[in-house]
Write a structure and sequence with these properties.
With 227 residues, the protein is an alpha/beta fold. 43% of the residues lie in helices and 16% in strands.
Length: 227
């Protein structure tokens, strides 16, 4: 791994994720403590964990991000809206929403627009639209980006992590599509500080990973090997 890094602090860009189905209260508390210690942007959790995470982080800098329609996006718009509203009521201020990929591929752009716009309007919170970029054609990515921007989303997120990781090329493509109009969250498969830094340099304004503390330790000690 290279040792000469640009002086970029990635900690404020990290959404510290705990998205395993077996997560315990103790693990959630540890996740929140790490987010506070390293001053990450958010903890990113399932809706069932939002209330507890918000209690752990009350008065702290990190916010709570909830995943909505995760991981498939194949729930109904009303279900996603309710899930988003409940998450906000429980303390979430950011929402990572998986779009319905089948609806997008069917060309039903109005349905995708309405789903995103309603969540943005009804919750008033930061919405990141998860594209699941590895399952889309370039034209579908372009279409999804245009819809998300028009609907009021604040970020495009590359992936859930269930269908492969994100790449520098993915981020560069989204940067070209968005032209700085909204943020880009690179997520899934970020395992090294060097990789995280490359994604930020490529245009990522937020990083989704469960390995945030490891990445920062690698920054301090470049010779550290991956777990």
């Amino acid at each position: 791994m290279a040792t000469d890094y640009p002086d970029i602090d990635i900690a404020p860009l990290i959404d510290h994720a705990l998205l395993k189905s077996t997560a315990t209260s103790e693990e959630l508390q540890k996740c929140c403590q790490e987010a506070e210690r390293f001053q990450f942007a958010t903890v990113c959790v399932y809706p069932a964990h939002v209330k507890q995470a918000a209690e752990f982080l009350q008065g702290k800098a990190p916010k709570v991000c909830a995943v909505i329609g995760f991981p498939t996006g194949a729930t109904t718009p009303l279900t996603k809206l309710y899930e988003a509203q409940e998450a906000v009521e429980n303390g979430a201020t950011e929402l990572d929403v998986v779009i319905n990929l089948g609806t997008l591929k069917a060309g039903k752009t109005d349905e995708i627009y309405r789903e995103i716009a309603q969540i943005c309007e009804e919750t008033g919170q930061t919405v990141k639209v998860i594209l699941e970029i590895n399952l889309l054609t370039d034209e579908e990515k372009r279409l999804a980006a245009e819809i998300s921007i028009d609907a009021g989303a604040q970020f495009l997120k590359t992936s859930t992590g269930w269908h492969g990781g994100t790449t520098v090329a993915d981020v560069e493509f989204l940067k070209e599509l968005t032209k700085g109009q909204i943020g880009i969250k690179a997520s899934a498969g970020i395992r090294t500080f060097e990789q995280a830094l490359e994604l930020v340099i490529a245009g990522a304004t937020r990083l989704g990973t469960s390995r945030g503390p490891d990445l920062l330790r690698q920054r301090s000690n470049p010779q550290q090997m991956e777990d």
